[in-house]
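Human: Not sure, check this?
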Amino acid sequence: MDTIPYLIGYARVSKGEEQSNVAQARALNAAGCRRVFEETASGGRWDRPKLHEMIGQLREGDVVVVWKLDRLSRSLKDLLHIMDRIEAAGAGFRSLTEAIDTTSAAGRMMMQMVGSFAEFERAMIRERTSAGLAQARAEGRIGGRRRKLADKQRREIAESVTSGRKSGAEMARLYGVSEPTVSRIVAAYRQQLGEAA
């Protein structure tokens, strides 16, 4: 005779959201969860006390149940890590909304597919990043943000302020930059003049 698994629910809402875990807890209780861990924390954070408490109490044959997959984690990498911890404890996993159940062969296959897609996504991001960096290097970009001012404009600001024709505040307004930016331009210009002398 098969034993009935001990279902443990996990409900989470993000901090600052004007909502509660009530609807999730109700769905988890209706699904047969005998205990529900409730948390108010971002799904992108790994330091969630209730999540760690739940994982620490898992025994072989238990099943972790969530209302929706993103309640466990918003990061696919963290989700797969949490799933590994659940599996290492000998427990299963169910998501009510996505109908994923790792206690069945089809559910285990589904999680393996999710993991494969995550790995593929990471590889694609690495390839796109490498291609973008190579393209930027080919165009002569070294890195960082593009300058807001052309060299000619920077020289005009520096010469105008240094000669006293215009104030730093006037040049900042004229070119749509901050006064500290003007100060840095002027300081660099004066340093160049000093080095040239």
In short: Residues 151-196 form one domain.
